[in-house]
Amino acid sequence: MMEALGFLKLEAGGPLVTVALLVALLALLKWYSTSAFSRLEELGVPHPRPSPFIGNLTFFRQGFWESQMELRKQYGSLCGYYLGRRMYIVMSKPEMIRQVLVENFSNFSNRAATGLEPKLVANSILFLRDKRWEEIRGVLTPAFSPAKLNEMMPLISQACDLLLDHLKTYAESGAAFDIQRCYCYYTTDLVASVAFGTQVDSRKVPEDPFVESCRRFFAFSIPRPLLVLLLSFPSIMVPLARILPNKNRDELNGFFNKLIRNEIAFRDQQAAEERRRDFLQAVLDARHSARSVGLDNFDFAKEVPSSGKGTADPSQQQPRALSTPLTVDEIVGQAVLFLIAGYEMVANTLSFATYLLATHPDCQKRLLSEVDLFKEKHRAPEYHSLQEGLPYMDMVIAETLRMYPPAFRYVCNPHPALHSGSLQHRSLEPSLVPACDQLCYHICS
């Protein structure tokens, strides 16, 4: 009899256990879906109402530019939002931006990362962190000194000559054409020559392996459903995405690595005076040492009147040994970063500048007169003469960048050791700077 009752209890308990587990799972999901969305409210930062799991992802369905303007219009110059479970604080007042990017830059030197960055860029200065970032920055700073840029002028001129040949063909035909595409050809040729040490003519030879790889690199995008899953369940989806096979990612990584390795091997066999004077060579020359450049010596710190620091020219300081020499992956990372910064951003800036000059013929006439006069004085221009001899050109480019900024937001992570009292400003409460590496300061100019 007792055995029968025990059996009945077991049978009755099976569905109850299942129901209990299901209820517990639903409660856990409900908690997870909203648990991360109370921090902005606790900090008193205005923000759109987040949806479970995805946060404010739907707020940005029109694109980041339009949505950022709408966010600022609705919630002010200091507001916030959530992408998935990650919290962002948006600052758009110049004095607040200055405080984060200049006065407290040492606390915000790391850019925000998702963990899904391809290996090609994960080793670039964009995503290197803390001490290694500072070391690699010390390697790159002298590469953009006037002396180094002047050595690269012949390579830049070659790419410009190809661009002018393409434009001349279109001008003689009198037909309409897409000038942005011409500028993309130009930037591809320029980056290939200066950053990767290879000569291409992307307009005449579009099937060139380098050109095709660049096209594939910029064509990559994450499907929207996958993006939603990544943002909603980062602790699960990000590690999973890292280990899943990705043929396109592996092929691109292999191509650029092989290209750089072959170029390094070739140059190591050359005499020093025979090597190309380009960005890649400047990085290779500093493989084992970097200029002694601290955080307070970088260009943006020079603008702080109260600091009294940052007056030394980093390119003139003595090299110091790197903690570890640059790896091939890190060299590839800096070259690919050059590709990212030089391909679309430069092409877009040139396209907008051309549009503005076409719609303002008086400015176009003034600029053309300056260029003609400069050409009469300098048959073989150097970098220094370009800076001094084309002031109106500099104003045109600066105004173009003001009206059509290629990068309108800057996202950085606070240093993990950042404490709540590190920022003192009437517009920034100390509680807005918790010691949490998930908090990102989003600077929208």
UniProtKB/TrEMBL annotation:
Keywords: Endoplasmic reticulum, Fatty acid biosynthesis, Fatty acid metabolism, Heme, Iron, Isomerase, Lipid biosynthesis, Lipid metabolism, Lyase, Membrane, Metal-binding, Monooxygenase, Oxidoreductase, Prostaglandin biosynthesis, Prostaglandin metabolism, Transmembrane, Transmembrane helix. GO terms for biological process: prostaglandin biosynthetic process. InterPro entries: Cyt_P450, Cyt_P450_E_grp-I, Cyt_P450_sf, Cytochrome_P450_3A. One of its GO terms (cellular component) is endoplasmic reticulum membrane. It is a multi-pass membrane protein. Its cofactor is heme. Pfam families: p450. The keyword Cell membrane does not apply. GO terms for molecular function: heme binding; hydroperoxy icosatetraenoate dehydratase activity; iron ion binding; oxidoreductase activity, acting on paired donors, with incorporation or reduction of molecular oxygen; steroid hydroxylase activity; thromboxane-A synthase activity. The chain crosses the membrane at residues 12-32. It is found in: Endoplasmic reticulum membrane. Its EC number is 5.3.99.5. It catalyses: (15S)-hydroperoxy-(5Z,8Z,11Z,13E)-eicosatetraenoate + AH2 = (15S)-hydroxy-(5Z,8Z,11Z,13E)-eicosatetraenoate + A + H2O; a hydroperoxyeicosatetraenoate = an oxoeicosatetraenoate + H2O; prostaglandin H2 = thromboxane A2; prostaglandin H2 = (12S)-hydroxy-(5Z,8E,10E)-heptadecatrienoate + malonaldehyde. It comes from the Eukaryota. Belongs to the cytochrome P450 family. PANTHER family: CYTOCHROME P450, CYTOCHROME P450 FAMILY 3. Catalyzes the conversion of prostaglandin H2 (PGH2) to thromboxane A2 (TXA2), a potent inducer of blood vessel constriction and platelet aggregation. Also cleaves PGH2 to 12-hydroxy-heptadecatrienoicacid (12-HHT) and malondialdehyde, which is known to act as a mediator of DNA damage. 12-HHT and malondialdehyde are formed stoichiometrically in the same amounts as TXA2. Additionally, displays dehydratase activity, toward (15S)-hydroperoxy-(5Z,8Z,11Z,13E)-eicosatetraenoate (15(S)-HPETE) producing 15-KETE and 15-HETE. Monomer. This is Thromboxane-A synthase. The lineage of its organism: Eukaryota, Metazoa, Chordata, Craniata, Vertebrata.
